[in-house]
Amino acid sequence: MHARIQQFFQDYVAAFNRSLGDSPDVESVQAAYAPCFVAAGPTGVLCAQNDDAFRAFLEQGYAFYRSIGTREMKLVKVDLTPIDANHQMARVFFSSTYERRDDSATTIDFDVTYMLHIEEGRPQIFAYVAGDERAAFEEHGLLPE
Q: What's the confidence (pLDDT) of residue 1?
Protein backbone atom coordinates (compact mmCIF):
# COMPACT_ATOMS: atom_id res chain seq x y z
CA MET A 1 0.00 0.00 0.00
CA HIS A 2 2.87 2.39 0.72
CA ALA A 3 4.07 2.23 -2.89
CA ARG A 4 0.56 2.93 -4.18
CA ILE A 5 0.15 5.96 -1.88
CA GLN A 6 3.66 7.18 -2.75
CA GLN A 7 2.68 7.06 -6.44
CA PHE A 8 -0.62 8.83 -5.65
CA PHE A 9 1.29 11.78 -4.16
CA GLN A 10 3.88 11.75 -6.97
CA ASP A 11 0.98 12.07 -9.42
CA TYR A 12 -0.55 14.82 -7.25
CA VAL A 13 2.73 16.79 -7.32
CA ALA A 14 3.04 16.28 -11.08
CA ALA A 15 -0.50 17.69 -11.56
CA PHE A 16 0.39 20.62 -9.28
CA ASN A 17 3.48 21.37 -11.34
CA ARG A 18 1.55 21.12 -14.61
CA SER A 19 -0.97 23.54 -13.13
CA LEU A 20 1.73 26.18 -12.75
CA GLY A 21 1.64 26.50 -16.55
CA ASP A 22 -0.92 28.28 -18.67
CA SER A 23 -3.45 25.42 -18.55
CA PRO A 24 -4.00 24.22 -14.97
CA ASP A 25 -4.60 20.46 -14.67
CA VAL A 26 -7.44 20.85 -12.20
CA GLU A 27 -9.08 17.62 -13.37
CA SER A 28 -6.17 15.54 -12.02
CA VAL A 29 -6.08 17.50 -8.77
CA GLN A 30 -9.85 17.18 -8.31
CA ALA A 31 -9.62 13.43 -8.94
CA ALA A 32 -7.36 13.14 -5.88
CA TYR A 33 -10.19 14.35 -3.61
CA ALA A 34 -13.32 12.59 -2.38
CA PRO A 35 -16.72 14.03 -3.36
CA CYS A 36 -16.67 15.97 -0.09
CA PHE A 37 -13.71 16.70 2.17
CA VAL A 38 -12.54 18.68 5.19
CA ALA A 39 -9.69 21.21 5.05
CA ALA A 40 -8.13 22.58 8.24
CA GLY A 41 -5.47 25.21 8.78
CA PRO A 42 -4.63 28.25 10.85
CA THR A 43 -7.76 30.12 9.73
CA GLY A 44 -10.16 27.34 10.70
CA VAL A 45 -11.95 24.32 9.30
CA LEU A 46 -13.80 24.17 5.99
CA CYS A 47 -16.18 21.50 4.73
CA ALA A 48 -16.02 21.49 0.93
CA GLN A 49 -17.59 19.78 -2.04
CA ASN A 50 -15.51 18.54 -4.96
CA ASP A 51 -17.56 20.51 -7.47
CA ASP A 52 -17.37 23.45 -9.89
CA ALA A 53 -16.75 25.86 -7.00
CA PHE A 54 -13.74 23.77 -5.93
CA ARG A 55 -12.52 23.76 -9.52
CA ALA A 56 -12.73 27.58 -9.64
CA PHE A 57 -10.94 27.74 -6.26
CA LEU A 58 -8.11 25.58 -7.66
CA GLU A 59 -7.79 27.72 -10.78
CA GLN A 60 -7.57 30.87 -8.62
CA GLY A 61 -5.06 29.15 -6.36
CA TYR A 62 -2.76 28.25 -9.24
CA ALA A 63 -3.00 31.81 -10.58
CA PHE A 64 -1.92 33.02 -7.13
CA TYR A 65 0.97 30.54 -6.97
CA ARG A 66 2.17 31.71 -10.39
CA SER A 67 1.86 35.37 -9.31
CA ILE A 68 4.20 34.85 -6.33
CA GLY A 69 6.82 33.07 -8.45
CA THR A 70 6.16 29.40 -7.69
CA ARG A 71 8.36 27.37 -10.03
CA GLU A 72 8.17 23.78 -8.81
CA MET A 73 7.02 21.56 -5.97
CA LYS A 74 8.85 18.34 -5.10
CA LEU A 75 7.70 15.39 -3.06
CA VAL A 76 10.27 14.71 -0.36
CA LYS A 77 8.76 11.94 1.76
CA VAL A 78 5.48 10.26 2.72
CA ASP A 79 5.04 8.91 6.25
CA LEU A 80 2.03 6.61 6.65
CA THR A 81 0.02 5.65 9.68
CA PRO A 82 -2.50 2.89 8.96
CA ILE A 83 -5.90 3.44 10.55
CA ASP A 84 -7.77 0.40 9.22
CA ALA A 85 -8.08 -1.59 5.99
CA ASN A 86 -9.65 1.37 4.17
CA HIS A 87 -7.99 4.41 5.74
CA GLN A 88 -4.50 5.82 6.09
CA MET A 89 -3.08 9.00 7.54
CA ALA A 90 -0.27 10.37 5.38
CA ARG A 91 2.10 13.09 6.55
CA VAL A 92 3.55 14.36 3.30
CA PHE A 93 6.70 16.45 3.11
CA PHE A 94 7.18 18.83 0.20
CA SER A 95 9.81 21.30 -0.98
CA SER A 96 8.82 24.18 -3.26
CA THR A 97 11.01 26.54 -5.25
CA TYR A 98 10.04 30.16 -5.87
CA GLU A 99 11.50 33.02 -7.86
CA ARG A 100 11.30 36.33 -6.04
CA ARG A 101 10.61 39.62 -7.81
CA ASP A 102 14.36 40.41 -7.68
CA ASP A 103 15.04 37.15 -9.61
CA SER A 104 16.60 35.40 -6.61
CA ALA A 105 15.35 31.93 -5.78
CA THR A 106 14.12 30.60 -2.46
CA THR A 107 12.90 27.22 -1.24
CA ILE A 108 10.20 26.51 1.31
CA ASP A 109 9.92 23.09 2.95
CA PHE A 110 6.54 22.19 4.44
CA ASP A 111 4.31 19.27 5.28
CA VAL A 112 0.61 18.53 5.08
CA THR A 113 -1.24 15.73 6.86
CA TYR A 114 -3.83 13.98 4.70
CA MET A 115 -6.53 11.49 5.63
CA LEU A 116 -7.03 8.98 2.84
CA HIS A 117 -9.91 6.66 2.06
CA ILE A 118 -8.79 3.61 0.07
CA GLU A 119 -11.41 2.03 -2.19
CA GLU A 120 -10.53 -0.73 -4.65
CA GLY A 121 -6.86 0.12 -4.04
CA ARG A 122 -7.35 3.77 -5.03
CA PRO A 123 -6.62 6.51 -2.46
CA GLN A 124 -8.74 9.64 -2.19
CA ILE A 125 -8.21 12.60 0.12
CA PHE A 126 -11.16 13.14 2.47
CA ALA A 127 -9.40 15.54 4.86
CA TYR A 128 -6.19 17.47 5.28
CA VAL A 129 -4.47 19.72 7.81
CA ALA A 130 -2.04 22.33 6.48
CA GLY A 131 0.21 24.89 8.16
CA ASP A 132 0.32 28.65 7.68
CA GLU A 133 1.31 28.91 4.03
CA ARG A 134 0.74 32.67 3.89
CA ALA A 135 3.13 33.29 6.81
CA ALA A 136 5.81 31.26 5.02
CA PHE A 137 5.30 33.31 1.85
CA GLU A 138 5.62 36.54 3.85
CA GLU A 139 8.73 35.28 5.66
CA HIS A 140 10.40 34.50 2.33
CA GLY A 141 9.46 37.83 0.74
CA LEU A 142 7.13 36.38 -1.89
CA LEU A 143 4.04 38.51 -1.28
CA PRO A 144 3.68 42.00 -2.72
CA GLU A 145 4.16 44.75 -0.18
A: 74
Tens digit of each residue's pLDDT (9 = 90 or more) over 77-114: 999 999 999 999 999 999 999 999 888 999 999 999 99
Cα–Cα distance for residue pair 105/129, rounded to 1 Å:
27
Residue 142: how many other CB atoms lie within 10 Å: 20
Strands 44-49 and 70-84 come out as unpaired
- Cα separation, 101 vs 122, in Å, equals 40
Please give the Cα distance from 74 to 96 (Å, whole number).
6
User: How many residues in total does the chain contain?
Assistant: 145
Q: Are 99 and 88 in contact (CB under 8 A)?
A: no
- pTM of whole model > 0.85? yes
Q: Which residues pair with 41 in a beta bridge?
A: 44
Amino acid at 95: S
First to last CA, the chain: 45
